[in-house]
Specification:
The protein has helices spanning 16-22, 31-45, 150-165, 180-186, and strands at residues 2-7, 59-65, 72-74, 81-90, 96-98, 104-107, 114-117, 134-140, 196-197. The chain has 198 residues and is an alpha+beta fold.
Length: 198
């Protein structure tokens, strides 16, 4: 299985101005450091390596698999899932083919979103046999910053502020850990590991 970021989000869940208000900085003297700190905090929450297991804002991803599946397949980071853009596969000759959109059902209500075979259809069986033979391209994340739950955004601000105030490598506590207040805010928004059923 492979997960590729095709088109990253063009928005940030928290702005530099919001972060500066959080840490009560009024000058631009430290803007470069503040941007770096804020991005590190966002990365701790968002995307492939984020603690939440979800894409926060509109971004396009491609999930690659060796073969088609039975039942439903949860899509990584697709909480929320906006849409499945396409399902393609490499046939036995290595030629890329597109699955008819009527052949699958997209569930955007589940967290994470998922896709399954539609009734009366079957998946292609003549596959190339490589780990990337099936390619599901989809759009995930909230459309607008305001759609992101306040707890997630506040957690990013708290984490960034903690990083800003504790910028040295040595400290009485492990700075790689997410502070308890942030964990409490994010706890109910964590998406658990992927599964397929059927």
């Amino acid at each position: 299985m492979q997960l590729l970021l095709i088109d990253p989000a063009n928005l940030q869940p928290v702005s530099l101005e919001e972060f500066k208000r959080q840490v009560r900085v009024e000058t631009s003297d430290e803007d470069a450091f503040l941007k770096l700190t804020l991005q590190a905090a966002i990365n701790k929450a968002d995307g492939r390596y984020g603690a939440l297991g979800r894409a926060l804002l509109t971004s396009q991803w491609e999930f690659r698999l060796r073969s088609f599946w039975n039942g439903y397949l949860q899509l990584p980071l697709a909480a929320p899932l906006q849409q499945v853009d396409s399902i393609k596969y490499l046939d036995g000759d290595g030629t890329e083919r597109t699955v008819n959109a009527a052949a699958y059902v997209t569930d955007t209500a589940s967290q994470p979103g998922r896709v399954s075979l539609a009734p009366d259809y079957s998946w292609p069986t003549d596959l190339y046999g490589t780990d990337d033979s099936v390619r599901i391209r989809y759009t995930a994340g909230w459309a607008e910053v305001e759609d992101i739950p306040a707890e997630i955004r506040q957690g990013i601000l708290l984490l960034a502020a903690d990083m800003y105030r504790n910028r040295e490598a040595t400290s009485e506590r492990n700075l790689s850990e997410i502070p308890m207040g942030v964990r409490a805010l994010w706890g109910s928004f964590k998406v658990h590991r992927l599964k397929a059923e059927g």
